[in-house]
Specification:
The chain has helices at residues 14-22, 39-46, 59-88, 101-107, 109-112, 117-141, 152-156, 159-166. By secondary structure, the protein is an all-alpha fold. Helix 1 runs parallel beside helix 6 (117-141) and helix 3 (59-88) runs antiparallel to helix 4.
């Protein structure tokens, strides 16, 4: 905390925007392109990292670096809201890739504790893209309509009663 804003100014979301750019496939980075790097690539120079020192990073550190104490509070609240949104769209019987988004984001939580936004965004994006491709290929091969088709038995069934009977 003593490095920001004393020797490095607040970035006001710059690491988040640069992470969106770096998540897309691209060529190698040129040496001149050091201003808009994601947080994890900038962090070692901020703390004078050497091979003999540890390097730890977290979403809270990135939020503080971008927005100060306000960001250190609001970014986790935003992350929690995103997780809640994903949970609300999850289904026990996934019919579309969006129904699996909560499971994908939840699986990234242990990694999120020591990584930056780029690593999290890229991990979710790659997993969701692969699942979506497999889902569409399955739909095309099976000759089915590409869209959520819910069988009448599942649509009309009260699944909560089945769960309660299975777990008394």
């Amino acid at each position: 905390m003593h490095q920001v804003p004393a020797s490095s100014p607040y970035l006001y979301g710059e690491t988040y925007f640069s992470s969106l750019k770096y998540a897309l496939p691209s060529g190698t980075l040129s040496g001149a392109e050091t201003e808009n790097l994601p947080a994890a690539l900038r962090f070692p120079s901020l703390i004078n990292y050497t091979a003999n020192s540890g390097l730890g990073f977290s979403p809270i550190a990135e939020a503080y670096w971008n927005f100060g104490l306000v960001g250190a509070f609001l970014v986790p609240v935003f992350i929690g809201s995103v997780m809640r949104w994903c949970y609300a769209r999850s289904r026990a019987f996934a019919m579309t890739p969006l129904h699996l988004l909560y499971a994908i984001t939840l699986a990234r939580v242990p990694i999120a504790l020591r990584s930056d936004f780029l690593q999290q965004y890229k991990g979710v994006l790659i997993a969701l893209t692969l699942i979506t491709i497999v889902w569409y290929v399955d739909r095309i091969i099976a000759g089915r309509h590409v869209g959520p088709e819910v069988p009448d038995e599942i649509r009309s069934a009260d699944l909560s009663s089945d769960l309660n009977e299975a777990n008394p």
